[in-house]
Amino acid sequence: MKLSTEETLVKIKQGDETVLKDLYLHTKPKFMGYISKEFNIPTEACLDLYQDSFSLLYTKITSGQIAQVTSSFDTLLIGFGRNLARNTLRKRQEEYPGELPDQMLDHTPLTRLEEKAKKHRVEGILKLMGPDCKKVLTAFYFFQKSMKEIALEMGYSGSAMAKKKKYQCLKAIRTKLDSKSWN
Amino acid sequence: MELTEKHIELLEKQYFQQLSDAELSELAQLLEDPAFAEEASRYLAIFERISAESKAELKSNMNTWEEMQRKRPLRLSGNMQLLKVAAVLVVIVGAFLYVFNRSNSTNEISSFYEAFPNRLMVRTVDTDTVLSQALYNYDSKDYIEARTMLNGRTDESALFYKAHCSFNLGEYQQAIDDFKSVIDLSGPWKETSEWYILLAQLQLDDFNPSKNSYKNLQAMASSNHGYSNEAARLLELLRTSK
Questions:
Q1: What is the count of residue pairs from A and B with beta carbons less than 8 Å apart?
Q2: Residue numbers of B between 71 and 100 with CB closer than 8 Å to A
Q3: How many folded domains does chain A comprise?
Q4: Which chain A residues are closer than 8 Å to B27 by Cβ?
Q5: pLDDT digits (tens, 9 = 90+) for B129-170
Q6: Domain-by-domain residue ranges, chain B?
Q7: Closest by alpha carbon to A136, among A127, A124, A147, A125?
Q8: Is there a contact between A139 and B58 (Cβ–Cβ < 8 Å)?
């Protein structure tokens, strides 16, 4: 049975993987056709771009940033794909062989914090978590769901409990990572 | 230094770029303390890593969906189903007439035209997912899909099985061209490719003894070629089936 755009949106937000899979497979050919032709990129790179665009669409739906679709999922995805492709091209063109002079870098405490965070290598972090912690932390940091939604999904009494659980999970993972070496 | 829940909330807002001006200056002030800055950078790395690994998991799911779709048999529409039935009937009638008009030894000749086995699955394709998928299709007799996947490749194994796809589809001229590309590489499939070129040419010439392909078969049968025994056996079958 073919679902309407609205129904698809609701099902995806509810975590229906079959609907997500169908949307992924249904919108792919059009996206690949448009983007590979417009940016003249090979199939493999275009597929990577499609998966990035689809991930973006998915997180925007789960986080509530997309609450309704006025056009179509095809149009949305192609729009995301175009932006991602342009950003990639821009970054490639801006690549500078030497280091930027110091005065050109905006050294604020926050940029220093981000630079330092990027240098830390903590791979395989999801494998260090139990299933509940993985669900809560993934829902918050990747799917950007609200505490209220997380509480509902996990069967917690309310957002305060979800928040507490998130904090406990984060602390636990931080302690586990202490036994690993940080760069 | 241990961060409090409030500190972590500030960092989360920074991560999602939701800091107000007041929170921004509060965080900037806290970051003046090197111990706080160090610990904060570790939490930020954790947030980023959770997100990156979740995205990688999602992409892995997408690849599984692609894989499942590739393995799923094609569903045909109503008209296509009718065409399929008609095609099957044509093949059955054609096969009946063919068998009726030929002697039994023809069946033995057709054994030379059975699909060449996939000998690569275990040896080399572990890391080459396209070749692996193409050979899966080849094994499933989906030669069209297998050939599509191998199009544009110039490595010997891909060219060799692409040629076999055309051969099994009865597109003998295309198969000859592809096998010639394999021979040009002078690799381990050279003699096998020469044999299949001969088989394809024999088909194109309808096994006519006056054609060069038949003479080439005679020459191969009495040569030191790796397929000389097969050539001799085929020659014998062709003689007895006249």
A1: 89
A2: none
A3: 2
A4: 109-110
A5: 677 778 878 888 888 888 888 888 888 888 999 999 988 888
A6: 5-71, 104-240
A7: A147
A8: no
